Each structure stands twice: as C-alpha cells, then as structure tokens.
Amino acid sequence: MGLFDFVKGIGKKNTAPAEPQAAPATPSEPSAQEIANKLLGHVKSLGLPVTGLSVSYNGTSDLATVKGQVQSQADREKIILAVGNIDHVAQVDDQLTVASPEPESKFYTVKSGDSLSKISKEFYGDANQYNKIFEANRPLLKNADDIFPGQVLRIPA
C-alpha cells in the first residue's frame, strides 16, 4: 500500500463507460464523481479479479484512491496502473489488500523512443525478453506497440 505518482495529462483518455451515478452529467469539465465512476468502469472493463472494488477521485489534488481485495500482487499493480495511466490522474493512493503477498514489481515510466524491446534490454540485458513485460502488463496493453511516453509499466523480476 502506498502513494504512486503518475504524469497527469499524458495518460490515455478514459473512454470506458461510467458506473451508474447519482449526479447528472455536465457538458463542461467532468466532476470528481464522474471521473471516479469512469475510473471504476475502466478497471471493471479489464476483467481483473478484485472484490469490493471502489475508486474515489479528488479533483483538487488529482488523486485517485483505490480500495478492495485482490488475490495477487500482479493484480494489485495492474489496477494501480490502470487507474494511474489515465489523463486526469496524477497520483494513486493504493489501499488494496493482497490475499497472497508477493514481492513487488519494478515500475518504469516510458520515455520518447522507448519500445518494449529497448526496455527489456535495459532491465534484462536481452531485447528478446520484451514479451515478459508485455504479458506482465496485460490486459492494460493490447499489443506490444501500445505504449506511450509517460505511461508507467510493470517490470517483473
């Protein structure tokens, strides 16, 4: 558990359907509740196994807070990245609990000109290990070329 930093405004636009909300939508800037509902809908759309998932968002500090229980460290990290790699979010407050704690993965922020092969060469000394990074970030990545500068990726040991 902890606080994770992301680059606000660089992440993907959140196009996932929002969870049902009480307040009506406004045509201008989305409310904190609307953003929280979209973040929750985004995580649910990925099909990651989590029990009791809730996401809140503070528009003043661009902080998203995630709560719930997951079985693995990998699922925990994927949920954090799914929320943090969205354009409105600058920080994620991880309040998820893990049923079977494991060592944490390293996180890497993609730079301009990076590819999974280049990142793999940096971390593993072998560009051909890129699929290890790709698989560690599924379903967040749909293909190996689906990365962008500022995005944060999991780098497994």
UniProtKB/TrEMBL annotation:
<dbReference type="InterPro" id="IPR052196">
    <property type="entry name" value="Bact_Kbp"/>
</dbReference>
<dbReference type="GO" id="GO:0005737">
    <property type="term" value="C:cytoplasm"/>
</dbReference>
<dbReference type="Pfam" id="PF04972">
    <property type="entry name" value="BON"/>
</dbReference>
<dbReference type="Pfam" id="PF01476">
    <property type="entry name" value="LysM"/>
</dbReference>
<feature type="domain" description="BON">
    <location>
        <begin position="28"/>
        <end position="100"/>
    </location>
</feature>
<feature type="domain" description="LysM">
    <location>
        <begin position="106"/>
        <end position="155"/>
    </location>
</feature>
<dbReference type="InterPro" id="IPR007055">
    <property type="entry name" value="BON_dom"/>
</dbReference>
<feature type="compositionally biased region" description="Low complexity">
    <location>
        <begin position="15"/>
        <end position="31"/>
    </location>
</feature>
<protein>
    <recommendedName>
        <fullName>Potassium binding protein Kbp</fullName>
    </recommendedName>
</protein>
<dbReference type="InterPro" id="IPR036779">
    <property type="entry name" value="LysM_dom_sf"/>
</dbReference>
<dbReference type="InterPro" id="IPR018392">
    <property type="entry name" value="LysM"/>
</dbReference>
<keyword id="KW-0963">Cytoplasm</keyword>
<feature type="region of interest" description="Disordered">
    <location>
        <begin position="12"/>
        <end position="31"/>
    </location>
</feature>
